[in-house]
Design a protein that fits this description.
Cytochrome Bc1 Complex, Chain D, domain 2, mainly alpha, two-stranded antiparallel sheet, elongated, 10% strand
Length: 236
């Protein structure tokens, strides 16, 4: 009984240790690259928004990454009638659970969610979206090196092609896709940048505002120190 208790006590630590061995590729930083964010939004709408919603973001928020209302309405407004509507989908949660084993999650804050669990959410998504491989034992025919036995199929397979897991447990491109490997990695980087932006659209503004506030405080400190010296000059 004592050994069983110790085993149960150590199980979470062992699980954490095994998770720490996961290698994540570094996602390119495209937070300030508006064309990349726009390309990522296009990929998201065309490939992800069929099953995954982004219900905490409205289409008109895409104006923050340089798109006009006309551009949004003309090429990105597929699941709504007005640009002021949220990025919702028609799929019901019950249908998603029946088809994939679990309802596809809302992706509005997916980068932030993965960040809390795995360090960098952008790095996790970048590695995950490039880590699919053919596995005929799975219901969808796909598996993933980052998310084992994932229920999600590889929706970008036409772009990437088909990978297989070699005997050395490394991915190998068995069937090329429409994009070359470097081009596919760049497309995924754009998508990840958009997903990261979507989780906190005001992040860059917040950072820039923080720098301005610190500079203002530094300037005020100079005046405050000078005023303090003036008040205390007769005492010292």
């Amino acid at each position: 009984m004592k050994k069983l208790f110790l085993a149960l006590l150590c199980a979470p630590l062992l699980a954490f240790a095994s998770g720490a061995e996961l290698h994540l590729d570094k996602a390119p930083d495209k937070a300030n690259d508006l064309p990349a964010l726009q390309r990522g939004a296009k990929i998201f709408v065309n490939y992800c928004l069929n099953c995954h919603s982004a219900s905490y973001l409205r289409y008109n928020r895409l104006q923050d990454i340089g798109l006009t209302e006309e551009q949004i309405r003309g090429s990105l407004l597929f699941t709504a009638d007005k640009v002021g509507e949220s990025m919702t989908i028609a799929m019901q949660r019950a249908d998603g659970k029946a088809w994939f084993g679990a309802p596809p999650p809302d992706l509005t804050v997916i980068a932030r969610a993965r960040s809390s669990e795995f360090g960098s959410g952008a790095d996790w998504l970048y590695t995950y979206l490039r880590g699919f491989y053919r596995d005929e034992s799975r219901p969808t025919g796909w598996n993933n090196v980052v998310f084992a036995n994932v229920g999600m199929p590889h929706v970008l397979w036409e772009l990437q092609g088909e990978q297989v897991l070699g005997a050395d447990h490394k991915l190998q491109l068995a069937k090329p896709g429409k994009l070359k490997p470097a081009e596919y990695d760049a497309a995924v980087a754009d998508l990840v940048a958009y997903l990261n932006w979507m989780g906190e659209p005001m992040a860059e503004f917040r950072k820039n505002l923080g720098v301005i506030v610190l500079i203002a405080l530094a300037v005020l400190f100079v005046f405050a120190y000078a005023l303090k010296r003036e008040y205390w000059k007769d005492i010292h």
